[in-house]
Amino acid sequence: TGSASRSDRMAKYNQLLRIEEELGDSAIYPGKNFRFSRK
Q: What own/partner pairs with CB < 8 Å and gap ≥ 24 does 19-22 have?
């Protein structure tokens, strides 16, 4: 339990960078207007 290890955090960060690179300019950040869908 507890927080993720440094290697786990780095893996997630690197994955976000890969996703950002793949999406390029087509990515849209909703910012504070983002809402989770309710089921």
A: none
What confidence tens digit (pLDDT) does each residue in 1-39 have? 578 899 999 999 999 899 989 998 888 777 877 777 666
Q: Using CA atoms, how far apart are residues 30 and 36, in angstroms rounded to an integer? A: 11
Say if pTM beats, i.e. exceeds, 0.90.
Answer: no
What is the number of residues in the chain?
39
Q: How far apart are CA 29 and CA 39, in angstroms?
A: 23
Q: Is 3 exposed, middle or buried (0-12, 13-18, 19+ CB in 10 A)?
A: exposed
Task: Report the C-alpha gap between 13 and 18 in whole angstroms.
Answer: 9
